[in-house]
User: Fold this.
Amino acid sequence: MSRTVLSALFSYWRRHLFQLGALIIGLALATALWAAVQAVNAQARASYAKAESYLAQAEQRSLSATTAPMRVADYVRLKRLGWKLSPVLQGRWRNSIQNLDIIGIDPLTSLQVPGQTPPSSAGGETPLLLALLQPPGGMIMHPETAGMFGSGYDAGFGHLQIIRSEAVPVGLAVVDISLASRLLGSAEQLTRLVLLEDVPLDREKLVQLPAHIQLASMAEAQVDPGSLTESFHLNLTAFGFLSFAVGLFIVQGMITLAMEQRRNMFRTLRCLGVPFVSLLGLLAVEMGVIAFISASIGLIIGHFIAIALLPGVSITLASLYGAQVEHGLSLRANWILSGLAMSFLGTALASAQSFYSLWKLPILLAPSTQARGQQLAGRYGAWALAGLALLAAGSIALMTYGGLLGGFVFLGGLMLGAALMLPFCLWQVLHLGQSLARGALAQWLWADARAQLPGLSLALMALMLALATNIGVGTMVSSFRLTFSDWMDQRLSAELYVTAQDDDQGAALQIWLEGQGHRVLPIRSHELQRQSGPLRIYGVRDDATYRENWPMLEARDAVWDKIAMGAGLLVSEQLARRENLRLGDHLPLPDGWPGEILGIYSDYGNPQGQAITSLAKLLDNAPGAPNRRFGIRLPVEEVPDLINVLMQEFDLKRENLVQQSLVKSRSMAVFNQTFLVTDALKLLTLGVASFAIFTSLVSLWSQRLPQLGPVWAMGVSRRVLALLDILRSLLMAALTALLALPLGLILSWALLDVINTEAFGWRLPMYMFPFDWLRLVLLSLLAAFVAALIPAWHLFRLHPHELLKVFSSER
Amino acid sequence: MVLKLKEVTKVIAQSDLERPILDQVSLSLAAGESLALTGESGSGKSTLLHLAGALDVFDSGEIYLDDQPLSDLSEAARAELRRTSVSVVFQQFNIIPSLDVAANIALHARLGNRHDAEWEAYLAERLGLSDLLHRFPEQLSGGQQQRVAIARALALRPKLLLADEPTGSLDEETGQAVLALMLELIRETHSALFLVTHSPTIASGLDRQLHLQGGRLR
Assistant:
């Protein structure tokens, strides 16, 4: 019996290949976008885990500084007292190719630290150690990172050899500690001292430690990249889920249609003695087979989408958080299983309503499709109320919990609630249109649009969600771009940026430039290790450039006078938000540093905390702060000449002299690259929604014949009917787009004010982009027009015989 | 007896009021026998047919199908009975649009594990469907679809064949010819035929006629 019933069930799909294709494509697309996002997340998390496990292995138990920097003298003193230690210097190395985190180790003592000296890909540790020790030194890095540096790097004081090792995480280089000291400009400084003896430290031993040094665990000393980027991955997951939900609308539409059209088959099979439970079970098997096929296709597509997205994600994570992700995508069981599970779960969700109505299906006479459509319309009021309840629940969650969780719950409630309210709103608008219409044909058009609403409402909900997402995310990104561009104009006010080869050359360069009458702005900084992570403090000169341009969010009166006097410091917005700092608060820093917060400034794209004090104060506390980078103020037309002169006078390479416009264009390029993933996902979502409209219109058009036949019989030509069909689709899409606009703006507000603040650590102003919205509305109208073309063409070419069937089949 | 109804009553709700659509109906039908049930629209003819086919439930009395009382049967047992012993030719044919004629004819017999390709081919030939076996229902006329429904019902060799206006969409002459063929075939299979019709002419061709009025048999 089962085989016969399954054969009858599948015979429907054989005769409705378009519907089957739409169902499989819809489910495959939904799965693909979800799986792609999960694959990207899994890849990134695997990279973080690798980095973390590497660092954890390398650091073991260590001593780190708290209130004052750890110096080489501290190390020497402890060694003399009998401590067995291996020194480490860690920091961010800024260079002309790619900024890298570097770990400087002492190759001789670090051999006793498991995992600290990674084996090279070529095998064996000896050549690798030799390379580290041979002057001027070598750098061990992951082959992917090494690819950017080629065979070596000219550091100004010599050609650094690059050694490849898979054991080192992407974006990190392991070097000899003396080389790290030169590259980081941190002479005489250390980040931590790894304990080489695995023995408990008794009180007697601990009292030998200087006051500013204490025993630290790995977790205390490091900010885990996974936790930093968690919000970004949550954002991606939310996007993947939204795309999945939009794809499910297609699936739901197709399953509902297939169930509707097979109601007579189900009744007949039951009349012929197929038990109800068997029928339901076999239908579940049918849906399971379709879900499995779709999931398989979706996972393959998802794999390719993930490969395409991964470089963009990698750049985003590197530029926003400094977290590195390997580019090569690995097949991982977790995202494959998650894709399969989502496909089955999605199919179950999308078919739940149909199964429920089948459960309620009487074995004998049942109401017609049209009558059920009217019943559905009667439920729009209840849907709208449920939507309002979801909106209220989301708002309460936002107000009660706040933060990322509250933000996402609010967004979920907002989007789902608005989708549920859409059919009711459209129904009311169409009703109003019908009552205001003059002329029989116009009234029929509005009434016809209303009659089609039950069949189209799911696809229109998908379109509204996709449009709102495009408007919301687009507004967020454009606001960010505008803010970022303004911010760069403020921050990058020097016309030329120069990097000297070393501190001596830097000093000579400064004297020479000032002798030429140029205003020189030294860019000098020092990194402090704090419990909450590293903090880079910059020292600035008292100059009009800062007073006039610095992107301050809030500040005390005469803030630059106070900074110049060394009375306090400015902190970046990220640092302020992360540590909940306000104006007037005191930032706990080692003795000698000014701690009072006098101002908070925006600092986009920087994952680490940053602060600014006067140059004099910086040099008081960190006299060895590197003196190699400068901003130079001069008339922009004099920049090319100065570049030539500096290259000749100081033997500087061209890459050491960067014009402001080049920095801006490079930064904007990184910015745009950062949002490529978002752009791709929102376009894919809109594409899926357009496909939903298309499949709905194509599938439903044959059901429309009873509606069209009588009008045709009354003298409205097929040509006019076809044109009206297109007009109706445009009308529905336009109304949906109008309703999507406010939803998109609320979404944008939530992203800018709630989600991004939590995710990135900065708040952005919201700008309006009406031309972008207009373009999106026109795009959705175009999608609706294209989607309506095929049914309209069918209608236009329809043989009168088909329309006459409407009457002959009415008994 | 293949079918026996004993004081069967069925009550339906209309505008919040309950009224008996069948009131204490009793009848019996033996193997090889044919019975026509006539009556006005809404008199309960189709309801009586559905009760006899174990498709619907009654409120009081008893129905015996092949000497089995239906009120004792579970939903699954009733489905089993429909799958193996009873065939129905519906007013609206109820053939499966996505199966071709051959698959439609074989459907019920396959479900009841009584598939017999030779018998199905014979039925198709007798009903003039041999050349249409690979066509789909949408490619058939109303009369052809009705003949497919009859062939499907007979392919099971049911003990009881129930037919609801089986010639309703055929002209008088074709209707008579199809009826004659049905009668011939049920005699061949030794089935009982219970037929509901509006037409006195069709009814007169069967062994017995009953008239339903106000829920009671006359």
